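> call design_seq(struct)
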């Protein structure tokens, strides 16, 4: 069971790469852009995102015993945060790219209480800072979409 959590938490080994979080976010953008047109509605994308978050909390709890607190090997949190960033955003490459930049900005700099969420125990600390970074990125991206679609 540990191996399964390690594989999924590291997104099939991406977490072992230098800059794995960025690579995981880029891969998520690519997959979102490719598969989003085939997903029927926002509720499905929201459900998928919630499943990733819940599994990420569970997996974060398991691998923390082996890898330590909020290990850089865990990149499923970047996948979750990137999904949150792109929920209810038009599937245009420009918006996906801006979403990536905004999410990585918030995830790396950790302003506005994001850093505080890292102090939560186990998988919650791993996931919730990225989820909040994704929420902030999504809010800004919603404004950008609204302004550019006037």
């Amino acid at each position: 069971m540990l191996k399964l959590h390690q594989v999924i938490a590291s997104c099939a080994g991406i977490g072992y790469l230098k800059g794995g979080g960025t690579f995981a976010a880029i891969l998520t953008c690519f997959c979102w852009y490719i598969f989003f047109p085939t997903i029927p509605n926002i509720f499905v994308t929201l459900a998928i995102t919630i499943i990733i978050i819940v599994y990420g909390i569970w997996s974060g709890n398991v691998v923390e015993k082996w890898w330590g607190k909020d290990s850089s090997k865990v990149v499923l949190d970047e996948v979750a945060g990137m999904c949150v960033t792109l929920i209810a955003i038009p599937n245009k490459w420009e918006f996906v790219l801006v979403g990536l930049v905004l999410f990585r900005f918030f995830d790396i700099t950790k302003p506005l209480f994001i850093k505080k969420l890292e102090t939560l125990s186990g998988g919650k600390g791993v996931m919730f800072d990225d989820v909040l970074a994704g929420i902030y990125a999504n809010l800004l991206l919603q404004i950008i979409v609204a302004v550019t679609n006037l």
